[in-house]
Design a protein that fits this description.
two-stranded antiparallel sheet; 69% helix; Cytochrome C Oxidase, Chain A; 2 strands; mainly alpha
């Protein structure tokens, strides 16, 4: 580790700075991933989600552009807001937790550059390609459509290669350190990590494969079968497995909860591995409905078991210095985590109903739940609130800072909950009443606006939490 002079090392989330505390606050291996996640959430994530919903009143082709923008938005949220955040936190937190050294910064930098370039190409080129083929003409005219289509596919392939490299690097790093028998807490987390890594690799692999020979008007869409598989793998396996796995470890540290129940935690991880197996099997066995139903049922059961494991709805421990004054409902971190799991329970129930809908024999008396509702209960609700709630205490620690402005954190938590509520209410109503209400699109567009605001305020919160630059920063060699 070397010391260098720098006023500010930058980054959306405030850059890294050797702070007033003098603590090492290295950029690598985590901060650029966090910056990328925030940028993805703000622009191609929530903003593009809002624009997609507003497509009927925008000067765009509602068929071709809507479909391309929807795919790009979903990808940016799952691989950017979720995936980049998970990779950055994982690369910094997991090796320390394992008792191993951090991965070599040089290799992380290279793989990050490939990941960021691939992801950005993928999510920016696709909606632009759709604009270049107005009316979805016969595979477009002039050089732009072909160029942008090529950039979308090249981005997806580069991103998949980079993610595979990052996962391999993490696995190599985590093979070091003391014997697992001496690292029981880490060993308990391993099945969650295996499920999450499998879900991540399946998702990026399916997206990359589906981008070879794209389809739809103008050839601007990732092939639907593979896009669907990728979204299922990310939403039903990657997101819940890593979230519950991290909660098992972190909630007792940050939320004054009793240690997780090991039996329920094991059951939860096994359900996520079973969900992964169902989705993997769908590839050689011809895809589709039955396997997605099995994956959704296992994922829903895994999430419910995870809720029982992490005790998030139970009483907080009292600390001697509290004098009875601690109130979970007055703590934005606790409110973030509890509301995240509230969305998680709804998402789990939604996944179980969606599974029933995949099996016609079981269908009739139950409300019909579309996958879009499950995606947004787990993506906009569960995942987003966990990132904000737990990220608010975890990330400042990575940067050698302290939790930042409480007011900003409260604002981010409330805005994110409001965004999730607006995004899922139309889906909940159509599940209950059997048809979508007419105000679905405007309400969804407002959800996107609130989502942009939540991600923006969370970015400001993180800035407020980094130590102030003193002119000297510690950097990695
Ligand atoms: C709260 C703000 C959000 C808004 C306004 C929004 C909007 C939309 C819209 C309009 C669609 C198209 C739906 C359809 O055609 O049926 C969509 C699809 C999707 N959204 Fe969101 N969304 C939001 C948040 C999120 C979040 C946080 C995630 C994930 C973490 C997410 C993941 C997805 C996915 C995966 C799809 C399907 C993409 C595909 O078909 O490939 N969304 N969203």
């Amino acid at each position: 580790m070397s010391v260098s002079r720098a006023g500010k090392t930058g980054g959306t989330a405030g850059g890294s700075a050797g702070g007033a505390t003098g603590t090492a606050a290295c950029r690598w291996p985590w901060l650029p991933f966090v910056d990328l996640a925030l940028a993805m959430a703000l622009v191609p994530g929530f903003l593009l989600g809002a624009l997609t919903a507003a497509a009927p009143v925008l000067p765009v082709d509602t068929g071709a552009w809507y479909a391309a923008a929807r795919q790009a938005h979903g990808h940016a949220q799952l691989m950017g807001w979720g995936g980049a955040m998970i990779l950055g936190v994982g690369l910094n937190f997991l090796p320390r937790f394992r008792g191993a050294g951090l991965p070599p910064p040089g290799r992380v930098r290279l793989l990050f550059a490939a990941f960021a370039a691939g992801l950005s190409l993928r999510v920016l080129a696709q909606p632009l390609a759709a604009l270049a083929v107005p009316g979805g003409g016969p595979r477009g005219a002039g050089p732009w459509p072909a160029l942008l289509r090529g950039a979308t596919a090249a981005g997806a392939l580069l991103e998949a290669a980079a993610v595979a490299g990052l996962v391999a690097l993490l696995v190599t790093t985590l093979r070091q350190g003391p014997p697992l028998a001496r690292k029981r807490a880490f060993a308990e987390m391993l099945p969650f990590l295996a499920a999450a890594a499998g879900g991540l690799l399946l998702a990026v692999g399916a997206w990359a494969w589906g981008s070879i020979g794209m389809e739809g008007p103008g050839g601007i869409l990732v092939r639907a079968r593979w896009d669907l598989l990728a979204v299922h793998a990310a939403v039903l396996v990657l997101v819940p497995a890593i979230s519950v796995g991290m909660s098992v470890r972190l909630f007792p540290l940050y939320l004054r909860l009793e240690p997780a129940r090991p039996g329920w935690a094991r059951a939860s991880a096994l359900f996520f591995l079973a969900a992964l197996a169902a989705l993997v099997l769908s590839v050689p066995l011809g895809g589709g409905t039955w396997f997605y139903g099995a994956g959704a049922a296992c994922s829903g059961a895994g999430l419910l078991a995870g809720c029982a494991a992490v005790r998030v709805f139970e009483r907080r421990r009292a600390f001697p210095g509290d004098q009875g004054r601690y109130r979970a409902w007055a703590d934005p971190v606790a409110v973030g985590a509890v509301t995240a799991y509230g969305w998680g329970v709804l998402g789990a129930l939604g996944a179980l109903l969606y599974a029933l809908d995949r099996w016609p024999a079981a269908r009739s008396p139950w409300p019909r739940v579309g996958f879009d509702l499950v995606v947004h209960l787990l993506g906009a609700g569960f995942m987003t609130l966990l990132i904000i709630g737990i990220g608010a205490v975890l990330l400042p620690g990575f940067g050698g800072g302290k939790p930042g402005s409480r007011a900003l954190l409260w604002t981010a938590v409330l805005l994110a909950n409001a965004a999730a509520a607006l995004r899922v209410v139309p889906g909940l109503m159509s599940a209950a009443a059997g048809s979508a209400p007419p105000w679905t699109l405007p309400v969804t567009a407002w959800a996107g606006v609130l989502g942009v605001a939540a991600a923006g305020v969370f970015t400001l919160y993180l800035r407020s939490s980094w130590p102030r630059p003193t002119g000297r920063v510690l950097t990695s060699p």
